[in-house]
Amino acid sequence: MTYAKNFPLLMILILFISAFIMPLMKKNIFVKGLSLFTMGISMILSIYTWIFITKNGAYFYRVGHWDAPWGIEFKIGMIEAIMAMLFTMVATLILWYSVYSVEKEVKDNKVSFYYLLVNILLGSLLGMVFSNDLFNCFVFIEVTTLASCGIIVVKDKKENIAATLKYLILSSLGSGLVLMGIAFLYDITGNLNMTYIHKEIMNVHAVYKNTLHIAAGLCTVGIGIKSAMFPLHVWLPDAHSSAPASSSAILSALVLKAPILLLIKILYGVFGFEIIREFAILNLILILGTMGMIMGSVLAIKQKEIKRVIAYSSVAQVGYIFFGIGLGNKLGLTMAIFHIIGHAVTKSALFLAAGAMIEKSGKKKLSELKGIGKEMPYTLGLFTIGALSMVGIPILPGFISKWYLSLASIDAGEFMLIGAILMSSLLNALYYFPIIVNGYFGEENLAGKIYKSNEKSIKELLPLMMLIIGMIAIGAGSNKIMDMIRIGLI
């Protein structure tokens, strides 16, 4: 199975090449089919890559004729293989769902453009996951930004254009900061390959301690903007709430996560555990992560539209990920990566369920969605299971993350932070439970509603069901997943 070493590059090439074939197709059904087919092929290749890694261990893959550090190099380990499976599986299910709903939010003449952007976006996200070269990661970040702007603005409404401009401006600022951080690292080490940068840093970190600290800070703030770290999240609510449902799901589930994985590579791979623990940057990440967990939920409680509630919930959930990174121990980092996995599946399901409710009822305000559980019992049921995970009900991945993050806090000697985790969970309940209760109960809420009158067909709900089943499976198999993550961190 040595040919499996080529699969990571093949995934990216399939997605990029197919994207530029789509404008040549005259019928939208063919474009949808090609996008879904290529994403499905990429998913199968990612599964084979994971199997190969499980049997043979991590490896480096040379792209082109030059060896590192002169040539482009991929590093494919357990974590990269898991992330590739996660990204392609979630994207495949979101695309499957979009086949039935995209025309209701995107004009017919822009459907092929929409799927072109999605394929480019996923290809660049996978490039960011696999690349062992900082400048190539930066290039993939920029491609991701432009494609993300496209899948937001494609709806072609005033709020989408405004949200896209806000995202583009702030994301450009973040990109500039990341590029400056990379420039500092290159100036000190003379390398862009992460493995070689780490080797040089180990030799010179005592001499360039302040410069390295600045580089770590620039990369953290720049990536923090792109991944909606509190209080750098200001672009997220408008972008996620105004975009088509499938775009919101991709943005929250996947686009936020790839830059965070890159930050983990930089802090714990390029700098290394021992060096990064000497820097104050981890304390900053921990503080902002804790603030995000609480303030994201507080802001979500104040929202009046369901998609804005879920968008601000993403700020809170990203806070948990940064919280784990900032703890500076192996358990915290393991749970940060685990939460990326659990949140990607859960939040994509929540956004698709909310999009289905808005599509069928024509209403997006919470006050107008009262009684929706009678009209769309299956859809709200799936939403409820996802919400329970976000709140932290046992067995579900949200609970697993919070439990082990609490243990990681104890391991780091930060006992007070357990209170922040508990407070955040209670705040999560305050904005999710009213949606569920008002959807299913109350005579005044259910009056005049016809049972299943707006419910989507089973074939349309099937990808949403599979996301929820996947979420439950992640919770049930959490120990095995965490063991695999630990293997990847060694």
Summarize the structure.
This protein is mainly alpha-helical.
Textual characterization of the structure:
This protein has a domain at 283-490. 56% of the residues are buried. It contains 22 helices and two strands. The chain has 490 residues and is mainly α. Strand 1 and strand 2 (72-76) form a beta hairpin.
Which terms summarize this structure?
490 residues, mainly alpha, two-stranded antiparallel sheet, 2 strands, Multisubunit sodium/proton antiporter MrpD subunit, ND/Mrp_TM, CPA3_Na-H_Antiporter_D, transmembrane, cell membrane
Helices and strands in order, then pairings?
Elements: H1 7-21, H2 28-56, E1 59-63, E2 72-76, H3 78-101, H4 111-130, H5 134-153, H6 158-189, H7 194-204, H8 209-226, H9 236-242, H10 245-255, H11 257-271, H12 273-276, H13 281-301, H14 306-327, H15 330-361, H16 372-375, H17 377-391, H18 397-411, H19 417-440, H20 443-446, H21 458-476, H22 478-489
Antiparallel strand pairs: 1-2
Helix pairs in contact: 1-2, 1-4, 2-3, 2-4, 3-4, 3-10, 3-15, 3-21, 3-22, 4-5, 4-11, 5-6, 5-10, 6-7, 6-8, 6-9, 7-11, 8-11, 9-10, 9-14, 10-15, 13-14, 13-19, 14-15, 14-18, 14-19, 15-17, 15-18, 15-21, 15-22, 17-19, 17-21, 18-19, 18-21
Q: N-to-C terminal Cα separation, in Å? A: 24 Å
Counting DSSP H or I runs of 4 or more residues, the number of helices is 22
DSSP helix fraction: over 70%
Report on the biggest sheet: 2 strands, antiparallel
Query: Which strands sit side by side, in order, in the main sheet?
Result: 1-2
β-strand number: 2
User: Which structural class do you get from the secondary structure elements?
Assistant: mainly alpha
Low-confidence stretches: none
Shape: globular
Rg, Cα atoms, Å = 22 Å
Summed over residues and divided by their number, the pLDDT gives a mean of 88
Organism: Marinisporobacter balticus
Pfam families: Proton_antipo_M
GO cellular component, one term: plasma membrane
Protein name: Multisubunit sodium/proton antiporter MrpD subunit
